[in-house]
Amino acid sequence: YYYEEEKNFSIKNAEILVENSFGKMGIDIVDTPGMNDINTAREEVTLNYIPKSDAAIVVCSAIHPLSKSEMDFIKSQLVDQQITKLFVAVNYSDTLRTETARQSMFELFQEKLSDIVPKDRIFLVSARDALKYKRQLAGDTYKKPVKSYEKTGFDKFEEQVLNYLANDRGNIKLQRYSSMFLTILNEIADVTLEHRKNAIMLSKEQLEE
């Protein structure tokens, strides 16, 4: 995207083609800008994608776990938009040196997100180690190699996300719009006659949605 305030930034979009299980199933993964960007226009890119999404993967940090802005984003943007299928990937799990530290971090996220995300959709992962492991398979060598993909946490994370996108997203999408429809019906039923007249004046685009 091109923004007037950034004269030296002229890239419209970038497409990365990778042969993997997601792509073979026709699944599009959109990596949007973060919500703490100083450029509000880039935040708008993220907000515009949310209503179109079947699921959302929220990437958090084990170093700075769940800031206020992240919690606000999850509650006000994802939950309010009826994005009911949320996955939380807690990155930098490689900085947690002991199993006790890992368990404590998991419990922290579970507690803060208990009313939003089930614990089986919260994953401790190490993106760095996962990438390193795949590079090892391609022939790269490291002084401290990653012994297994399972240790990165990405095996279970990918399995859960892929299983949902392959088998459940149709039902979840219907549930999402059903929930939105019932919400609208309840709102119409509770308002005055004047508000009901306003509801009839919805635009063609709103009616189609």
Features of the shown structure:
209 residues; mainly alpha; 8 helices; 3-stranded parallel beta sheet
SSE order and pairing:
Layout lengths: L20 H4 L15 H10 L6 E6 L6 H12 L6 E6 L7 H14 L9 E3 L2 H11 L16 H37 L2 H8 L3 H5 L1
Parallel strand pairs: 1-2, 2-3
Textual characterization of the structure:
With 209 residues, the chain is mainly alpha-helical. Helix content is 48%, strand content 7%. The chain has a three-stranded parallel sheet, sandwiched between helices. α4 (99-112) links the parallel β2 (86-91) and β3 (122-124). The longest helix has 37 residues, at 154-190. The protein is globular. It starts with 20 loop residues before the first helix and ends with a helix.
Spans with pLDDT under 50 lasting ≥5 residues?
A: none
Beta-strand content: 5-15%
C-alpha end-to-end distance: 25 Å
What is the molecular shape? globular
Number of strand elements: 3
Number of helices: 8
Mean pLDDT rating: 80
Task: Give the H and E element order.
Answer: HHEHEHEHHHH
Largest sheet: 3 strands, parallel
Provide the helix percentage. Answer: 40-55%
Q: Name the strands of the widest sheet in spatial order.
A: 1-2-3
